[in-house]
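Re: that chain you flagged

S.,

Sorry for the slow reply, it's been a week of failed gels. I finally had a moment to sit down with the sequence you sent. For the record, here it is as I used it:
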Amino acid sequence: MILEMKVPSPGESIKEVEIATWLVKEGDYVEKDQAIAEVDSDKATLELPAEASGIISLKAEEGDTVAVGAIVCHIDTDAAKPSAAAPVAEVKKEEKAVEVKKEEVKVAAPVAPTSYASGTPSPAARKILDEKNIQPSTIVGTGKDGRITKDDAINAVPSMGTPTGGNRGSERTKLSMLRRKVAERLVAAKNDTAMLTTFNEVNMTPINTLRNEYKDAFKAKHGGLGLGYMSFFTKAVTRALELFPDVNSMMDGDYKVAYDFADISIAVSGPKGLMVPVVRNAENLSFRGIEAEIKRLAIKARDGQITVDDMTGGTFTITNGGVFGSMLSTPIINPPQSGILGMHNIIERPIAVNGKVEIHPMMYVALSYDHRIIDGRESVGFLVAVKEALENPVELLCGGNPKKAFDKSKNEKIL
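Prediction finished late last night. Pasting the structure tokens below so you have them in one place:
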């Protein structure tokens, strides 16, 4: 029986995928549920498992864009599984054949004649090369017998100065569907929103003091979970969203859609590029709950196991360029959201405190927002509220009792 394997739907809004990598070869025997390919959608990279055991016949090439529901391979389920010894013998046979071919090449190469056409440009190619002031001897012809064609001349690049003998290679690779979609969304965000960015700075001394005092106990209580900066920033953001709900809304044509919950998208870097998984109902999570969820999503992104559902439906985004050393940036809104908070690196700087100069760890923060729906008062007020919470975390983020806040094991809101 020949089983026709079709592309399953990764999500309601996804109509096509791209074959990123075949994990098996034509004629391989595959087991049921074995991963046979990685496919890219515009939101995530997913593995395609075999629906049955048998000999596989590929019907699509790597890089092909195929519609959801299209046939990508056949599996002959009646085919017997090869014995363990057969593939080894076959491999040895192939290796021997390759060795013979190599020997043939070694013998044949010295006596191979060189065609008179090798390195000679066609009349049209010569005209183009003369105009570019390029010597034909510097071009490798791709035409018959090595002749330099018109296309070779058009694609030839004049030398930029004296060659130094170093490598001057280049590589042209097609972007993954996910990367192309990210690029499309970023350009759309710049073109389709009235994006503006406001800045502030945060004195990180209070948070550092809290973390140094409680991080060991937090780790011991919660099974090795770290007490990072992201939980503080997430809680500061959810508090500010309650105070300035316009920042937690988005445009839908002529309407404003406001949310009474905070699904916070956290930008993370994965092997396939930027991923933005969502921490659901972050306003109800404890420090432990936020740290555990961010860790879970980050591991999925790192391992390439992130799903479309994991990245759908956020209402506000936090991105941390500081982990890569960024001091200041203007983050781009993650559409259709209306706001994104950018964190940056922490640098000790002198600041004035009560009329005296003191050295403190400082971080610049940036809020990019859609001015069509968020006014200056709301945007500046939101960022000030984030700053206030981070500089007074004991009262505003921990309810006056840090030990109780950090001990919480349930995903409950701190009152």
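What I noticed first: Residues 85-108 form the longest helix (24 residues).

Talk soon,
D.
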